[in-house]
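Slack export, channel: ligand-projects

TW: morning all. Re-posting the request from yesterday since it got buried. We need the structure predicted with the small molecule present, not the apo form. The ligand is flavin-adenine dinucleotide; the SMILES is in the block with the sequence. No rush, but it would help planning for next week.
GE: picking it up
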Amino acid sequence: MSILYDEAQEAIAKESRRVLDAQFDKDKLLGLLDGTGRFDEAFWKTAVEQGWTGLAVPEEYGGLGLGLLEMGLIAQSAGALCAGAPFLTGNYGVTQILASCTNGALKQAWLPRLASGDAIGVVAFEEAGAPLPSDPAVKYEGGRLSGKKAAVPGALKADFAIVWAMSGGKPVLVLAELNAAMSRAVDSFDNSRLYAEISFDGAEAAVLFEGEAARCGALDCLARMAVVAAHEQMGGAETALLLARDYALERKAFGQPIGAFQSIKHSIAELYGLVEVARANSIHAASLEGQGGFLAAACAARLSGCEAYDTAARDAVQIHGGIGVTWQLGLHLHMRRARSLSIELGNALFWEDLLVTELEAKAA
Amino acid sequence: MIELDEFRAKAGEWLHSVKAEFGPDARRGLSDEQDLALGRRYMAARYDAGLAGINMPVEFGGLGLSGLHKIVFDEQEMPMGFPSVYFGISLGMPIPIIMRYCEDKQWVRERVIAALRGEEIWCQLFSEPSAGSDLAGLRTKAEQDGNGWVVNGQKLWTSHAHHSDYGVIVARSDPSVPKHKGLTYFWIDMRAPGVTARPFELLDQSVVCNEVFFDDVKLTDGQRIGPVGGGFGVAMATLMIERYVASDPDGYGPSVSFFMDLAKDVMLNGKPAIEDGRIRSAIARNYAMRSGLDAIRSRAFLQMEAGLEPGPEGSLGKLVSFRSRQKLSELAMDIQGAAGLAYDSEATTTHDWAVSWLSAPTGRIAGGADEMLLNTIAERILGLPQDHRPDKGIPFNEIPV
Ligand SMILES: Cc1cc2nc3c(=O)[nH]c(=O)nc-3n(C[C@H](O)[C@H](O)[C@H](O)COP(=O)(O)OP(=O)(O)OC[C@H]3O[C@@H](n4cnc5c(N)ncnc54)[C@H](O)[C@@H]3O)c2cc1C
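GE: finished. pasting the full C-alpha cell output, ligand included:
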C-alpha cells in the first residue's frame, strides 16, 4: 500500500524545488562550514515567505493543516540542494507535540508563532547516543530542569526546546524557553546545523506529557521527524546520483566517457536502486501518518534514507576522482549533510532495533 | 651490513629520543609554514643521526642498506606523527629517478643530500586536468628549441609544489604519434621563470595540492631524463620504484583497537556498544581483514629477506585499507550519537573519527583510484582482458576530444 501524489502535492514539489534552485549558492554554503553560529538564512526566509513554516500547523493556529506528505516534499527539495536549516525538521517535531498536547495556553503561545516562522523550537531528547534514553539524566523537579543535552540541532537559534526528562521516576516531555546563556556552540563538520549543547541549570519548564503518554508522544515525534529527514536524505542522494551520472558522461579517460567503464556505470546504477527504494519507503511512510503500521514504515524509510545518502555521497565523490575531493567543487557538502542527517535523530542501529521490535509485535 | 634487529633497535631508540621535539604535541597549533620548518629540522636531525637515505647508495650520501632496513625504519616512524609528510614524495620518487638516470653524479649527490636533510623538496608533475588515471593523455607540451626545450601547459594536483625547489615532469614532445609514445621526461627547476604554483584547498581545507602553470619555461637538454619519446616508460619506472613500501593496514586512520576503546565507552541500548552483536561483528571483520593485510606484508618481508620476489598481493593494501577506514569511521561517528557530530580540525586522522572520515576519500583517489587498482589486479595479475580503448594506437593529435 502506498499513494500517488495528488495535483496539489505535485505542485508543492515543483514549486519548492523551483524557488530553492533559484537561490542556490554553493559558495555561500561552503562559507557556512567555516564557523559556528551561521545558517542558511535565505532558505529560512524563503520557507517563511512560501508558508512552509505553517504547512503542518493546524489551521486554527494559523497554519495550513497539511501533513507529512507535504512536509516530506519540502524536505526533499531542501535536501536536493543541501539547503535547509535544522528548523525544518525541528519545528515540525515540536509542532506535532504541541498540537497533540492539552495545554491550551502553550498551544496558543507557540503554534501561531511557529506557523508564521517567528519562533524556532527544537527537540532535545537524545543523551549519550540514545535517541530516547529510558532513564534520561536531565531531571525535572519543582517546575525546573537540570542537566545537559549535547549537540542539539538548531539549538543555537532556538526560542524553546521540548525536552525528554525524568521526573520522580517517570519520563516527561516538558517545554522550556531557551536563552543564549544556556547554549554552547558545538563546532561540527556541518556547522549550519547550529548544534549546541544546552545546559538547563534550573530553567523553568512546563509539562506537556507524562509517563507512558510522554514515551508514546516522544517516539511518535521522532518517527515523524525521521520521515521528514528521510525525504531530505533521499533528495540529497538523488542529487549526488545525478551529479555522478552527469560527470560520468562528460569526463573522458582512455578515449571514452568514464561512464562507459562498467565499474563506474554499475556503481551509479546501484545508487539508483538505493534512491528509489528510499523514495518509495519515504512516500509510503508519509502516507501512513496517524495510521497503523506507521512506526515500522518510518523505520524502513529512515534506514533506507541513511543508506542511500551516505552511499551516494561516498560513491559520487569516488566517481569524480581528484576533483571530487576539492573544497571548491563542494561535493563534500553532500558527504557532510549525509553524515549529519544520519546521526541526528539516532543512528541506524537504533532504528534497526526499533523496526525489529515492531515486526515482532506485529507477528505476535 | 647492520643486522635488521640491531637496526630496528637503533632506529627505535633514536625516534623515541626526539619524540618530544617533533611529535604531535610539538606540532599542535603550528601554521603550515611552521610545521614545514619543524619538518626540515627533523630531517636534518635524522640525517645527522645517520638514519637518512637508508637504502640509497653510499656514493650519493645514503647508507647503502637494504629496502627492508628502510621499511623497518618507516614502520616505527609512522606512528610517531612526525612532520615528515612534506618529504615523502620527494625522496620516494624523484630522487631515486635522478640517481638512476642523471649523469652528473656530483650534482646528483648534492641534490640527494639536500633532499635528505629537508633543505630541498622535489615534486612529481604528472597529472593534469584531463589526464589523471589516463596519464598518457597529458597535454603539457615540450618543444625542441635550439639545443634545449620549451615547456608550456598546466599540471594539476601536484602535491607540495608550492614548497618545491625541483620537480620531475612528463610532457608531450611529439603529438603526431600514439599517446604513450610521444612523451618525454625531464627534471625542472621550480624557481625558473615561467613556473607558477597555485595551491588550493581539499575538502578538509588542507592545502597539499597545486595547479602548476608553465609559460615558456626553458630547459636544457641536460634536464632530459631517458630518451626523447621514452617518457612514459620512465614515468612507469617512477611509480614502480618501491613496490613494497611501508603500508598501513589501518589506511593511515585509527586502529581497530582504537575503535574497541570507543565501543567500550559509548552505550547502545543501555549497554556498552561493544556488547552489541553488530558492533562485535564490525570489529571482528575489520580486524580479520586488516590482520590479513598485515600478514601479507610480513610474508613479503620474509620473502625479501630470503632474497625472493614478493607476490603481487601486496597491491591490495591501499585498496582494502582505505575502504575499511572510511566505513569504520562512519560507524564510529554513528555510535557516538550527538558527540559524533563534533569536528576538531586540530585532531589527527589516526586519533579522531570525524577527521579520519572526512579525508578518507582522498586516499581512495590519490596515487591511483580504487577502480584503476582493480583494473591492474584484473589485467596484470589475473590476465583478464583490458576494456575497449578507442584511442589505442591512434596518433595523439587525431584522437577526438
Ligand atoms: C591529494 C592528492 C594528491 C595528489 N598528488 C599528485 C602528485 O603529487 N602528482 C601527480 O602527478 N598527481 C597527483 N595526484 C593526482 C592523482 O594521481 C589523480 O587524481 C588520480 O590518478 C585520478 O585521476 P583524476 O583525478 O583525473 O580522476 P579520473 O582519472 O578522471 O577518474 C575519475 C573516475 O573514473 C574512474 N576511471 C578512470 N579510468 C577508468 C577505467 N579505465 N576503468 C574504470 N574506472 C576508471 C576513476 O577510478 C575515478 O573513479 C594527486 C591527487 C590527490 C587527490
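GE: first-pass observations. The first helix of chain A runs from residue 7 to 23. The pocket of flavin-adenine dinucleotide is lined by residues A 251, 253-254, 258, 261, 263-264, 318-319, 321-322, 325; B 89, 123-124, 126-127, 132-133, 157-159, 208-209, 362, 365-369, 371-372, 375, 387 (CB under 6 Å).
TW: perfect, thank you
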